[in-house]
Design goal:
By secondary structure, the protein is an alpha/beta fold. The protein has two domains: about 160 residues, Rossmann fold (3-Layer(aba) Sandwich); about 220 residues, Rossmann fold, CATH 3.40.50.1100. The protein contains 16 helices and 14 strands. Strands 3-4-14-9-10-13 form a six-stranded mixed beta sheet, with helices on both faces. It has a four-stranded parallel beta sheet with strand order 7-6-5-8, sandwiched between helices. Strands 1-2 form a two-stranded antiparallel ribbon. The termini are far apart. It binds pyridoxal-5'-phosphate (PLP). The site of pyridoxal-5'-phosphate has 21 residues, from helix 11 and helix 15.
């Protein structure tokens, strides 16, 4: 198979055999309207000017590319640079996509936004752009996640969003996404569904990728300024896959740049307690696209486990499936233990508290750096900041000490 370098999807929304649009008939008109609006707007320079203006003046882009000197010395090998998405307004990369999609919603004449959220980061970013654009906002969140992430629920409500608790299933991201889709079916006229990661039915995986690509476009310019050459490796964590694709997509044609996507290894890949959809999943359909899914032997979807709520989605974006199949990106895993360790190491070494999701990427970067030469370069995506995870880490460490 030839190496896939990011030129998908095909006209039907397939990345190889992955992706597509497996949705109920009633949603097809809404998805076609979205596709049309997107096809139209993506070719308008004024649309991108508006997107970039908000990213600059409101989100605070470009995010810095920081040479982590102490972390480099600690790992003892390649130079480690950090792409600081944690410094964005609202504290993660999610806002890049929300800014783009709310502009799309506005141009489509929609007045109401719905979204799903797991850890609450996408919900907060969505509620934020809804406040900015004066749109009505409803966020679906699983009951279990609401309990785990009360602070983000409070933030969303303060921002004016209605948070709807979802008690179906295990009350996590998958169930919240089902409810959001159900809402969309009933209100497609005035409602825009603002999907938070590179999964879901076509054209969402492409739309989200295009709005997150700013991460990699900036990183490429910045590393050329710092080092006058491209990096040897890129590392990012993967939940649905949007921050990883955002960083990596602009580098896909640069075949000397090696890439590592880090899935949530949970308690270890030998048990069921993980969320490594690509490493351990099987092909199936969830939320409108063909992808790798965590399934039991009967084909029932199993809930993922990860210490980080943002990584425990049982599927992954379809473009990642093709990138894995074609060998362009390596898919690895970091366990809960390794992530918590990396969380502490980066905090102590550089004074940067990363999100637990991003800590998975840091954990792999530390292993990788040791195997490389001092003149080689790694860029790690710090997808978000870790304030939201302090109590989780504290409880984990207290448990581990017993
Ligand atoms: C949501 C989230 C992720 C996982 O989502 P992707 O779509 O895989 O990027 C990773 N890091 C942070 C900080 C998040 O909030």
């Amino acid at each position: 198979m030839t190496t896939y370098i990011g030129d998908g999807p095909d006209v039907s929304g397939f990345f190889g055999s992955f992706g597509g649009c497996y949705m109920p008939e009633v949603l097809m008109p809404a998805l076609q309207a979205l596709q049309q609006a997107w096809d139209n707007l993506r070719h308008q320079p004024e649309f991108w000017d508006e997107y970039k203006r908000i990213l600059t003046d409101y989100v605070g882009r470009p995010s810095p590319l920081f040479f982590a000197k102490n972390l480099t010395a600690y790992a003892g090998g390649a130079k480690i640079y950090l792409k600081r998405e944690d410094l964005n307004h609202t504290g993660a990369h999610k806002i890049n996509n929300c800014v783009g999609q709310i502009l799309l919603a506005k141009h489509m004449g929609k007045t109401r936004i719905i979204a799903e959220t797991g850890a609450g980061q996408h919900g907060v970013a969505t509620a934020t752009v809804c406040a900015l654009f004066k749109m009505q906002c409803t966020i679906y969140m699983g009951e279990t996640d609401i309990r785990r992430q009360q602070m983000n629920v409070d933030r969303m409500q303060l921002l004016g969003a209605e948070v709807k608790s979802v008690s179906e299933g295990r009350g996590t991201l998958k169930d919240a996404m089902n409810e959001a889709l159900r809402d969309w079916i009933n209100h497609a006229d005035d409602t825009y569904y603002l999907l938070g990661t590179g999964a879901g039915p076509h054209p969402y995986p492409t739309i989200v990728r295009e709005f997150q690509k700013i991460i990699g476009i900036e990183a490429k310019t910045q590393i050329l300024q710092h080092e006058n050459r491209l990096p040897d490796a890129l590392v990012a964590c993967v939940g649905g896959g949007s921050n990883a694709l955002g960083l990596m997509h602009p580098f896909l044609p640069d075949l000397d740049v090696h890439m590592y996507c880090v899935e949530a290894g949970g308690k270890g890949l030998q048990h069921d307690q993980h969320a490594a959809s690509i490493s351990k999943g099987k092909v199936g359909v969830l939320h409108g696209n063909m992808t790798y899914l965590l399934q039991d032997p009967d084909g029932q979807i199993i809930e993922g486990h990860s210490i980080s709520a943002g990584l425990d989605y049982p599927g992954v974006g379809p473009e990642h499936c093709l990138l894995a199949e074609s060998g362009r990106i390596n898919y690895v895993a970091a366990t809960d233990d390794e992530a918590v360790q990396a969380f502490q190491i980066l905090t102590r070494q550089e004074g940067i508290i990363p999100a637990l999701e991003s800590s998975h990427a840091v954990a792999h970067a530390l292993k990788l750096a040791k195997t490389m030469q001092p003149e080689q370069i790694i860029i790690v995506n710090i997808s978000g900041r870790g304030d939201k995870d302090l109590s989780t880490v504290k409880a984990y460490l207290a448990g581990a000490a017993q």
